[in-house]
User: What shape does this take?
Amino acid sequence: MAMDRVLACASSLATCHKVLEGPLLNSWLSVKDGLKMFVIEDKGGAIAIMLASLLFLGTWPAVLTLLERRGRLPQHTYLDYSITNFLAAILIALTFGQLGESKPNMPSFITQLSQDNWPSVLFAMAGGVALSVGNLSTQYAWAYVGLSVTEVISSSMVVVIGTTLNYFLDNRINRAEILFPGVGCFLVAVILGSAVHASNAADNEEKLSGATNSDKLGTNGSVEPNKEALDKDAPKDLENGASADPPKAEAGTAEYLIELEERRSIKVFGSSTFIGLGIVFFSGICFSIFSPAFNLATNDQWHTLKDGVPHLMVYTAFFYFSMSCFVVGIGLNILFLYRPMAGVPKSSFKAYLSDWKGRQWALLAGLLCGFGNGFQFMGGQAAGYAAADAVQALPLVSTFWGILLFGEYRKSSRKTYILLGFMLFMFVIAVAVLMASSGHRSTE
Assistant: This one.
């Protein structure tokens, strides 16, 4: 019987159309109808997907930092990142958001695109704008204050401000007696993060104070050019903007700091500590807004939707959220190609298209961030967005990458190590307490 259908399909397009409309199509529809939209409903599943989100959201900043330290222009990197970040939202919407039969209380992604749900869509898009501006700010903050301190301060601000807003928006489904002590621990982490940066900056100044300027005295009393002077005449690598050979200086030394400054695309020597911290606190405010805005988009606590219009499913809201993030990110970084900031060289759209060195890493960072944000929202819809802010433990991951890949805090003072240890310890406690406050949101 199956062979007869194959032969009939091969002999006539009209017959093939009937075959496809018949048993094969009916079989597919029956399978699809038997599926249920993937919605996380239990606390264990929410915690598991939030842990995956934590890993992704803690890794992508390290990837972008690696590219900046190799000298790739941040405008080029962020344009690549924005493309795959939006692609991740599309993939989530077309897979998880399309599983199962569309129902009145749980419409599919495609169904919701034509519904009159614009108030919720605007909330989702506002959250995307806030996230995009925050991400763009942190891209410059990493150069000023380092990866780990940037992530700790901005993430802790999200928990202090954003978690409090989400707690009241979620009708207090999280346990306040557990949640707010966790928020207090994050606030302590902010103070410790600032202290770590100040101590590490003092350590670097002490290292650099002993470094030579342009020449050094040779063994025979003659003046010999140091490595920085020799590098001016060395063959240049287009990606690194420095000599093609990798630096030989040991991480944590003055020579390493000087070589890093020469290679990187954002020049920070001589800049005020307050500039870096100011950028970090601005990004923290932006990050504090996006999660409550997404919460309003999916749960309509302010009753902006018309009667009978279902709430946005998390996948649909994430699509609109990421679309606005994409538009803002692309628009601002095209502007920054021609009007750069923070001492970054000018570029052009043509130069961006031809810059393939490190592009694969920027594209990977976009996917990691996109899926990380999507998983955070999926967990938040189940266990409460206040508890989902526990993924702001991402500094634990980014600090690991900062120490492993970039030699952050290498050869620092004992005071810096003690402050760093206390900061991470308080952070671990805060995240554990926040996870313990998880509630349950009814999907009925």
Observations:
- Residues 176-209 form the longest helix (34 residues).
- The radius of gyration is 26 Å.
